[in-house]
Amino acid sequence: MKFKTTPYHYDLLKDEERLAVFYEAIKDFAVANDCTNSTLFDVGCGSGILSFFSKDYFKEILAIEIDPKVANYTRDNLKEFKNIEVINDDATTFDFPKKADLILCEMLDTALIDEEQVPALLQCRKYLNENGRIIPQSIINTAELVEMPRENIHYDDVVSNTKYDVLSDSIVYDKIDFLSDFDEVFDDVLSFKINKDGNLNGIKLTTYTILSKDIICGPTPMLNPPLLIPIKSKNVKCNDLINLRLNYHMGQGIQTIKVSYR
Ligand SMILES: C[S@@+](CC[C@H](N)C(=O)[O-])C[C@H]1O[C@@H](n2cnc3c(N)ncnc32)[C@H](O)[C@@H]1O
Fold this sequence. Notes:
- The chain is an alpha/beta fold.
- The chain has two domains: about 5-105, Vaccinia Virus protein VP39 (Rossmann fold), CATH 3.40.50.150; about 140-260, Hnrnp arginine n-methyltransferase1, CATH 2.70.160.11.
- It has helices at about 5-15, 15-30, 50-55, 70-75, 115-125; strands at about 40-45, 60-65, 85-90, 100-105, 130-135, 140-145, 155, 165, 170-175, 185-195, 200-210, 215, 225-235, 240-250, 260.
- Helix 5 (about 115-125) links the parallel strand 4 (about 100-105) and strand 5 (about 130-135).
- The N and C termini lie far apart (about 55 Å).
- The structure holds S-adenosylmethionine (SAM).
- S-adenosylmethionine binds near residues 9, 44, 47, 66 and 91.
């Protein structure tokens, strides 16, 4: 199957690891639950690849995409599959005509900080049937302190190819379950133990995506590349304890990030 789409969505299609974990999670869900009478929402469907993966399992798929150009391509890509309807609308305001048994909502951005789909998911969750599920189920965020060469905030992706030294243990600082209520503002003091002498000048955030009880995915080229955030530099020694206050607003962008020593 060939997909015509935008360059960004084409890059997403080239990320085979990302596609593989979503394919497995959808298939596992559909095999474990008889979905032949079920409704699926593909929220922010982009190229439509996740609807394509789901088409043989679900009675009906509502795939919603806010970008008209992307939605037009996707409608055309998927037109032969009569159980998929591609809707060009904003998922934060769209009045769905029915409820869903499963929602697919791909959260690509590290710690959800620059993730525009946060408000879309929170709204679409209201249309989930009582025992309905969401893929991915949850995320786990971890943090480490680093010495890094660059002084600007950036993603550790294939383009930046950043080299940095990790100076502390990695800590799990947040877990978000997409079926539960969560505060979109993260604000907490994180405590790190230094395990290597160096010039501390950054904090690295990494997100792990839990797609189902058996599938967890670390960063891939397009899914949650780690985020490197500069902080005031400080010489540190092995076994030092460092406390940092980390604050950001999920869905509102990396400009909301604030980090300070405590
Ligand atoms: C990560 S991308 C696409 C992921 C998609 N699963 C794929 O494989 O192509 C997220 C998509 O959500 C769309 N989007 C963002 N906010 C939206 C909203 N409020 N309503 C509908 N679509 C939205 C974006 O235009 C983008 O195409």
